Amino acid sequence: MAGFLILPRNKFMINDVLEQIVEDYFRGNGYFTQHNVKYRQNDKGVHSDIDVLGIHPYKKGAEKVVVISCKSWQGGLNIKSDLDALKNNPEKVVSGKLIKNMWKEFFDKNYANALQDKVCELTGGKEFIFYLAVTKYKGNKEDWENFPLFIRNYPNCKIKIIDLKTMIDEIWKFLTTTPSHSELTRLLQLIKADDGRIQYENN
């Protein structure tokens, strides 16, 4: 009997699983990727990480390099709520953490500069697409992608949101019978080989 992989929209996904989905998605689109690239401000303080960094051998401009920050929160991203807090109350505490620190790579100019310096060191330029990968989001993603503070912090970049369903749907399209390097994509290959399909709850 054909199998189903049912992906609940409201369950928790650990970050490294989301990172693997991100890597599979961008590799399927021709990018070479690297995980957990460490950087810090002026070689001081605690290291931060670029969750996934990708470079495409043929694309030009901002599309040549992608930087992806992964947030695998159970409730997903509430765009309006978080942007309102960043704009009007960055000291707001959410789940025991200041919201400005939750989004430091987008919000804090020093972190943004350090991130761009690291990308430039590894790829030769500061022009890239900065993706926020989330399990799901609520609200208008263009509000996030065009938020003035983020645009100021990343003047040479495009900012994009990508969600789990979009990535899974795209991975599904380019599945082949050649065994994948990834356990996740290999699982999807086996389900597809058995005439299974992906089905989301709460569509």
Describe this protein's structure:
There is one protein chain. The protein has 203 residues and is α/β, with parallel strands linked by helices. The chain has one domain (13-184): Trna Endonuclease, Chain: A, domain 1. Helices cover 39% and strands 25% of the residues. It is built from nine helices and eleven strands. It has helices at residues 15-28, 79-88, 99-102, 104-107, 109-123, 141-145, 148-153, 164-173, 183-193; strands at 4-7, 32-39, 48-55, 65-71, 77-78, 93-94, 97-98, 129-134, 137-138, 158-163, 197-200. The protein has a five-stranded mixed β-sheet, sandwiched between helices. Strand 6 and strand 7 form a beta hairpin. Helix 1 packs across helix 8 (164-173). The two termini are 24 Å apart. Residues 1-14 have low confidence and may be disordered.
Task: Summarize the SSE layout with pairings.
Elements: E1 4-7, H1 15-28, E2 32-39, E3 48-55, E4 65-71, E5 77-78, H2 79-88, E6 93-94, E7 97-98, H3 99-102, H4 104-107, H5 109-123, E8 129-134, E9 137-138, H6 141-145, H7 148-153, E10 158-163, H8 164-173, H9 183-193, E11 197-200
Parallel strand pairs: 1-11, 4-8, 5-9, 8-10
Antiparallel strand pairs: 2-3, 3-4, 6-7
Key features?
203 residues, disordered N terminus, globular, alpha/beta, Trna Endonuclease, Chain: A, domain 1, 11 strands, 25% strand, single chain
Overview in brief:
The protein is α/β, with parallel strands linked by helices and 203 residues long. The protein is 39% helix and 25% strand. Helix 1 crosses helix 8.
